[in-house]
Design goal:
There is one protein chain. By secondary structure, the chain is an alpha+beta fold. The protein has three helices and 16 strands. The strands form four sheets. It has a five-stranded mixed beta sheet with strand order 2-8-7-4-5, with no helix packed on it. Strand 4 and strand 5 form a beta hairpin. Helix 1 runs antiparallel to helix 2. The longest helix has 20 residues. It starts with a helix and ends with a strand.
Length: 299
Amino acid sequence: MDIIRKCILIIITTLIVGQSACTITFGPTGGEKINQETAVVLTVQALQGDQEPATITPDQQQQQQQADDDTPTATLTATVTNTPKPCNKTTFISETIPDGTEYAPGTAFTKTWRFKNAGTCTWNTSYKILFKSGDQMGGPASKNFPNNVAPGETVDLSVNLTAPATGGTYKGTWRAVSDSNEEFIHNIWAQIVVPSPVFSVTGVNLTAIPPSFVGPCPFLFAFTADITTSGPGTVSYYWKRSDGTEYGHASVVFGSAGTQQVSITSLTPISGVHWMKIYIDEPNHQFFGPVNFQLVCVP
């Protein structure tokens, strides 16, 4: 057994000496070569049985570290590509008249939007806003930009509008196009509320026909009342004379806001200055007038 072990030791030692003397290396290099030598030493020591276990020397550790440091590593480089700005680009800045603002019927108002030119092209006065959809409210179908707007500058785009005559919510939408008809502002709008008026009689104009009379009594006077309302509805009323007499209870129907005339006659027998007035029972519960008239009785 000792003879076999000695033969193996001689063979391994010969291999180590031969590998060290060779300047041409085949197979593993660097740290792997050191690992091979270490493996051979360990094998020799294992075969020697009665000797201490092999250890890696400081020189071998330094060679291993140097081999690790020399191993090439991959490097990643990020490339940033700048996206060019579009010719026509906007930044919304502000607007007047918030959505839901209330206006009385027929009220004129101006809606304004402010934009910043965030593109690379100058907006010239051939740029314009166009009505797109909804309630136009008397606004323009087309309106050119008020001035040239260079990149970085701001512009106020305005339309003059009028609140509709009837109650409701109204919204009109516009858009903006370039001098080559490219749409670059897609939806800008004005949205208002016109309150539905509470139905009421807003005025009554009374007339006595004639306002005075001299002659035989009694005399038949006529009276008219021009009644104006705020909207559609029914007006109920009656007349009252200066002597306290109430008569002529009636009603009149209005299909919309406006004025209608009602009338009555009164036979007056006594000389003097008299008056007539009208009481609006519904919807106002209110007297209008009086209108004075005079009678001079002559036999």
